Amino acid sequence: MIKETVIVDRRNISPKDLSKERLELLVDEATKAFLEKGYTGCSVDHISRTSGVSKSTIYRHFPDKEALYEVVNQRIADEQADLVMDFDLDSSKPGQSLRAYARHIYHVDTNPRFLEFFRMLISEAGRLPQLTARLRERGIATVLGRLTDFFQGLIDANKMSHPDARQAAVTFYVLARGNFRPLLGVEFDLEVELKRLDVDIDIYLKGSGIR
Question: Do both 70 and 35 map to the same domain?
Answer without folding.
Answer: no
